[in-house]
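Action item from last meeting closed. Structure (111 res):
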């Protein structure tokens, strides 16, 4: 399962580089990073939340700072706040799902 975790981290870092490119590639990079975030949920059951937390951090930084379409400051003029908020909400839903899985993993291993 650690292969899937490392794959998700590498995929998130790769999408971080693509997200700087203006236009449709920044949106494609966002969805690629969401795919990496979904993949990082899989190894939680066997190895804990390290891969998920690392991937979620990379995706969050990429989304809020480097993504040309979604970044908070100086984003593309075509992006509206409604679109941004809906894409941020997708990220938050996936993160909440992963964090609940990490919490269940920690609770199961405590006892």
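Sequence:
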């Amino acid at each position: 399962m650690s292969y899937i975790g490392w794959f998700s981290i590498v995929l998130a870092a790769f999408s971080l580089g693509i997200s700087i490119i203006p236009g449709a590639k920044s949106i494609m990079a966002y969805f690629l990073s969401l795919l990496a975030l979904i993949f990082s949920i899989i190894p939680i059951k066997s190895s804990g939340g390290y891969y998920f937390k690392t991937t979620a951090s990379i995706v969050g930084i990429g989304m809020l700072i480097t993504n040309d379409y979604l970044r908070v400051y100086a984003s593309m003029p075509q992006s509206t706040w409604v679109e941004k908020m809906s894409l941020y909400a997708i990220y938050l839903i996936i993160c909440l799902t992963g964090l609940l899985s990490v919490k269940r993993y920690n609770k199961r291993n405590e006892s």
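Note appended to the action item: Helices lie at 2-18, 24-39, 44-47, 50-66, 81-110.
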